[in-house]
Structure formats: structure tokens, C-alpha cells
Amino acid sequence: MQKFLAIASATAAMTLASLGAQAYEAGDIIFRAGIATAVPNDDSDPISLPTDPPTVLPNGVEVDSGTALSVMATWMFRDTWGVELLAATPFEHDIDLADIDIAAGSTKHLPPTISLQWYPRGGQSGWQPYLGVGVNYTTFFDEEVDPALAGVLGELLDVTSAKLSLDDSFGLAAQAGVDIPLTEKWSANLGIWYIDLRTTADINVTTGSGDKATVSFDVDIDPWVYNIGIAYRF
To answer: What mean pLDDT is reported for the chain?
Structure first.
């Protein structure tokens, strides 16, 4: 029994020491990595196809969720304040026409975000919750028109080729998260962001007769981004 109590006491002391060393302080660098899922809270303008009379799709498009690997680095310039840079591998999203339920296309994007973070328990041991606000820049690439949409455009407009492009976006971002200590240096991390992400989509088409036209509409993607991962304090 005494041996058990001694082991338990030693374990408790090591745990408390580990938690005590987990206090975030000015000068610390916190590296986080994990898996992030972007869930769009999307809203699209109607799409007006240049038929005669015009064909209007009143609900526009819907943007599906995408998952990527996340990488974040925070520099603590005060015990309770830090600056974070968020990066990730490319997110990929499928895009569907909302009114006729067919695939419209797909795109990839990168969403680098810089945020000012507040750590209310900075300088104290234990869990480290934080809140942040910052600026996001999202760049789109590898946009593609789905064959299903190309077929519809071919029937309606005699389209022989179609290309999709999405404008890059600047917007505000807000976040909340928590680091849960595991050892002296390592923590589990949970985080969530809301990103103001708005873009204009252009579908550039060429008809069989050689005529060219552009179908443009605005899309608010405004994703919630959920992250689970690990954190390491340098």
C-alpha cells in the first residue's frame, strides 16, 4: 500500500510539474498541425444563362465541404497575446447546381490567414483557451467545369468548351480554440474558424459557331473550418 501511494504521489507530482511547465509566456513559439474541414455556409446569386429568353437558375450553386492538412504557428509577444499564421494543404470543393441537382465543377484553394490571438490563461498552467481575429486571403486554382454542366450548356447554348474561374478573396476571420496539455511540451488542439469568403465565378463559354460569352455570378462561401490536431511549444 505504501509503495502504491508513493508511486501515485510521484505520478501526481510529475503531472503537476508537466502542467506547470505548460504555461504560455512571452517569447514562446507554438506550432500546431492537424486535420481541418471547411464546411461552407454558402449563398449564391441566381445564374442567368444567355438563352432566348434567358434561363434563370434562381438558387445558383452549392459548395460542398473539403478537408486538408492544417499548419499553424503562433508567436507569443506577451503572456496573453500572440500572432498566428494559418496555412494548409489545398482544400478541394465540389460545386453543384442547386436547382437541377447536377455537378457544376470543382476548385481548389489555399486560405492563408493571419490573426491576433488572446490567451486569457497565458502565464498560468493547464488548459490554454484562446480567441482570435484576423485577415484571410484565399486564392483559387485548378477550377474545372464538370462534364454534366458542360452537357447542359451544350444542349441549351451549343457550347463546345467551357472554363470556370473564381476570383481570389480578402476577408475577415474569427477563431476560437484550446490547447489541452499532454506533456511538458505537447498538447492536443481543437480549433474553429469562421471566414468571410466571397468570390465571383465566371464561366467562359465558346459555341459551335465560334461565339463567346461569359456567365458571371457572386458566391458567398463563408466557411466554418473545424480543426483537430496537436500542438508543440518551443
So the answer is: 87
